[in-house]
Every structure is written in structure tokens, then in C-alpha cells.
Here is the input.
Amino acid sequence: MPENYSFTTHWYVNAPLKDVWELIYKSEEWPKWWNGVLSVTETEKGDERGIGSIRIYRLRSPMLYTLSFRLLLTQREEYKHLAGNASGELEGEGAWHFDTGEGVTHVRCHWNVHTNIKWMNTFAFLLKPVFMFNHRLVMKQGAKCLAKKLGTTVITN
Here is the structure.
């Protein structure tokens, strides 16, 4: 049976909202700056705002296993919100929320997903805390890489 996971990550980026938004929204560029993101391939363009676009993500975790999933962009509010539905080895919903104040951009990433990988589900009773820790490491690495790309600092939760 699939194991459910819920993750919320906060980044506080010392950079303009527009710069942060552009790096997150243009996920096909992530492999160039986010260690662990192996590939992002757009298979459908979507409408003029990107709604309906489909991208396939392939990630390598710090524990050296890989995950692949397809993300259908379902919502986009410029400089505020992105959301999509994932299918494949991860299935569920993900969202990015953005706001700013006093020169700091707050990014909140939320995932409600379950895994469709047999070995992960079989051993989840034992390894779920490890998988959750691994997700936190991936997101901290993303924050570190984002900060480097922008030439600034990021505080994570």
C-alpha cells in the first residue's frame, strides 16, 4: 500500500521576489544549478500562462536512489503561487507560495504525495523517517544552490 507524506519547507531568500520566482518557475533550468536534480523535461507546453504544461522530473536523493515523476501545472498566479499534480513514482499535489517583505522573499513549498515505488512502500514502516529526512536534505540543498545562483543567503526551516 502506498505510504503518504506531507512536507512543508520554508526558504527566506535575501533577493528580490522576481529573481526567486524566475528560478523556481523555470524548473527546466534546475539541473544547471540544483544539485540532485538530474533532469527536467517539458513534454507539453500548456497555455500562454503555462497552465496544462507537463514536465518530467528526475531526481537523485542524497541516499543515492532516484525518483521520477510527471508534474501537470494546474495553477499559476504570477509572483505568488504555483501548483500542480504529480504522477509516477510520486503521486499527489505540490505547491509553491511566494511573498516578500523588507527585501526578503519567503518561499513555501508544500507536498502531499504518496510513493508508488514498491521497495519504498514495503520498507516504509522502518524507513519513513529516513525518507522524510532525505526530503529535508534535498530541499536544504536546493536552498543552498539557489543562494549560490543568486549570490545571496537563504535561511531554511
Summary: The chain has one domain: 4-156.
